[in-house]
Write a structure and sequence with these properties.
- It is a single chain.
- The protein is α/β, with parallel strands linked by helices and 319 residues long.
- It folds into 2 domains: 221 residues, NAD(P)-binding Rossmann-like Domain (Rossmann fold, 3-Layer(aba) Sandwich), CATH 3.40.50.720; 77 residues, Rhodanese-like domain (Oxidized Rhodanese, domain 1, 3-Layer(aba) Sandwich), CATH 3.40.250.10.
- Strand 2, helix 4 and strand 3 form a beta-alpha-beta unit.
- The protein is globular and about 65 Å long.
- The mean pLDDT is 93.
Length: 319
């Protein structure tokens, strides 16, 4: 047997029919960094026919130790770099590069066009936004997170519980790859598992990776569990876009004037995450910060005394 995909077509789990299914598939990949690089490489290499890649960032030299698909393209937009890489790997794979952030404003439309979603952004606001959109559209979501020497990969939504069912709350504080560091093979391993889970879903293999969490801890200690019966948590804080702020909302921006000279909304008042101002009775509280982590912490405090809806905004790095 010859041909680009001969070695996987010979597998009884794939075959000619499975290969045709992969060629017809459309996968949304959010994030083309350390997790997205191996995931995209192996999805394209397997012959997944169409990839939409969402990433607003630019390739930097400090990325390359864990994002080798961008080699030689420092200064390019990551989404465009992916398109160039995939075109060289397999011109038959169609890539739609989108140099934009994944937000609550565009998530639903992007998810609706996809057969499966890969969350490779390693950003919890993006993860929760994608999980909510995928849950509503019943689209499977493969999501991963990596930090320092460990992380996890899970299969959510579709016919499985959402990410919120496994992670209903967030820690008060969290590190990032910039502050805590990351070893390239760690994030590469988790991104490769994302690709394997995605291919398993697209091929309809059993047992399904949806409803399964795989963990990697320092010292190459593997773990995980199935969560097929996990209940969806009641309530919870949803992320919204700044454009969704209404005239009657009580808006708090947790970024100070040095961090954000222009607040998220003209009516926003500044506040502290550990002592947020109390909204008036009946008003929806909207709390904003850069990553969403401080906003989540403030929302947890407010929820103890404020019975009305609380929404969050993650403004991102640039605002």
């Amino acid at each position: 047997m010859s041909g680009r995909h001969a070695r996987q077509i010979v597998l009884p789990e794939v075959g000619a029919e499975g290969q045709a299914r992969l060629a017809r598939a459309h996968v949304l990949v959010v994030g083309a960094g350390g997790l997205g690089s191996p995931a995209i490489m192996y999805l394209a290499g397997a012959g997944v026919g169409s990839l939409t890649v969402v990433d607003p960032d630019v390739v930097e030299a400090s990325n390359l130790h864990r994002q080798p698909i961008h080699a030689g393209r420092v200064g390019w937009g990551k989404a465009e770099s992916v398109a160039a890489f995939v075109a060289a790997l397999d011109p038959a794979v169609e890539v739609t590069p989108l140099a934009e952030r994944l937000t609550p404003a565009n998530a639903a439309a992007l998810v609706a066009e996809a057969q499966l979603v890969l969350d490779c952004a390693d950003n919890f606001a993006v993860s929760y936004t994608l999980s909510d959109a995928c849950m509503g559209a019943r689209v499977p979501l493969i999501s991963a997170s990596a930090l320092a020497m460990g992380g996890y990969v899970g299969g959510f939504c579709g016919q499985a519980p959402s990410l919120r069912a496994v992670f209903p709350d967030l820690p008060d504080r969290a590190g990032t790859c910039a502050t805590a560091g990351i070893l390239g093979p760690v994030v590469g391993t988790l991104g490769t598992i994302e690709a394997q889970m995605a291919l398993s879903v697209l091929l309809g293999l059993t047992p399904s990776p949806l409803g399964q969490l795989v963990t990697l801890a320092p010292g190459l200690r593997w773990g995980g569990f199935r969560f097929d019966g996990a209940p969806e948590p009641e309530g919870g804080f949803r992320f919204i876009d700044a454009a969704e702020i209404g005239p009657d909302d009580f808006v708090v921006d947790l970024r100070d004037a040095d961090e954000a000279p222009v607040p998220v909304h003209p009516a926003a008042r500044r506040g502290d995450a550990d002592a947020p101002p109390a909204p008036p009775p009946g008003a929806r509280a909207v709390i904003a910060c850069r990553s969403g982590l401080r906003a989540w912490r403030a929302a947890r405090i407010l929820a103890a005394t404020h019975p009305n809806q609380i929404a969050l905004i993650a403004t991102g790095e640039t605002t």
